[in-house]
Write a structure and sequence with these properties.
130 residues
Amino acid sequence: MLAIDLTPPTLVTTDEATSLAEAARLMRDKGVGNVVVTRGEEDGGRPVGIVTDRDIVVHALALEVDLQTLTVADLCTREPAAVDARADLFQISATMNEHGVRRVLVFRDRQLAGIVSLDDVVAAVARLMN
């Protein structure tokens, strides 16, 4: 199985000026646990980071930070781990392990094509074992 085959249909992106409160609403409304942070339209929405629901809870909400004024740029993980769309399960999991992350961005021809989570990898391995 290739990375592009594992990407869920919903990929949520947002500009780096988006408040954490709005990012949390996007995650809730789209049923996802992360948003890819992009740099404005003038750069073609180039991915510059990622914010997860856990980031918001552990690093902002638990510290009682104002979620309306803090932006995703203030909290995002910069230069998130990434793989090519043709990466296989071994390459995906090796990249996650190398970077100590549970999600990797998937690129096809230098364009963001999706995101694969550790849960997606586990589900794929389980399907292969059956």
